[in-house]
Amino acid sequence: MTTGTAMTLRSRNRRSSGQESPEWVRISAASAIALGFRSGRFGRDFDFGGINLLLNYEDGCRSDCGYCGLARTRPGDYEDKSFIRVEWPLVRTDDLVDRMAAVEDRLTRLCISMVTSPYAFEDSLEITSRINAKVRTPLSILVAPPTLNRRRLGRFYDAGVDMIGIGLDAVTERLFRSIRTDVPAGGAGLSWKKYWNVVDDAREIFGPWKVNCHTLVGLGESDQDLVDLFVRLVDRQIFPYLFCFNPEPDSRMGLVPKSTITRWRRIQLVKHLVEKEGFRGDDFRFSEEGSLTGVRAVHADLVVETANQGLAFMTNGCPGENGEPGCTRPYGSYRPTEQFRDFPFEPTTSDLVNIRAELEVDRLFF
Ligand code: SF4
User: Which keywords accompany this UniProt record (predicted)?
Assistant: First the structure.
């Protein structure tokens, strides 16, 4: 019996509470508001077309990352746990698909976030096929590498998945090993090598600019670690997407402060310069500890113009069908009451005044 067949049989025979995937999924609070499952408004008006789904299981995610709201050992029932600090209401998959089909012309990007579960692969495929039967909006899967192999990635591709996201989060092997492991439970944790095997296979199967790696700023990495990874990914035509670490209460890293706004804005700017302007590591200067201390003065005009334009500070996410912003995850990196860490729309003139002050741009060149 093949592993795939064994998994299918297990999936069919499994005990279910009745509110698990694939019949049920969680959706981000912003998606629930946009689709009318919840009442509410965004603090500022903007078009919202990225719908984020999250698989749901009674026993939750089997991984135990130190910063994650869904971590297995974080106190509380899985049903009540937040993820990237936002609530994820539970809805029937078929109701969700019908609502998305009804407003398809307003949607820009759909995404299924897997969790580490033996059922996650088959359920993601099933939900993909239900969506693709009725909705034409491009679909991403933010994958759980421990549940995948090359053959399974190929099945996602054959099912019509457009892009693959890999939540690397920690940008060095040392950090990854120390944070993405279930130390309190004495478990083995996630494998850096496995994550990169999935990145490599996804890049081969899905092609250039169809794979992305989520990277978190504020887990303990240096600026130089981030720049090295951005260059490495962009060279391979893989998108680096930036997230700002935002401590989840009661998680193992719940008391670790988020990065300062100046560091965050500078990393946003630097990432944009690497991705869109071809900057390399030696265009920047770093301290011995790897903190960014400057950008070559020869680039000053371009850097100031980039900062003034504002695109560098928008949310990184999979694009819509025509390259427009697709997945914008409002409130993924900040609370609704806080200033935007990334903007799900083009920053306004007054936003840009604040951003320039936060960047301390005059002190950026050497
Ligand atoms: S950027 Fe959005 S759509 Fe793309 S993989 Fe990440 S969560 Fe999914």
Answer: Iron, Iron-sulfur, Metal-binding, S-adenosyl-L-methionine
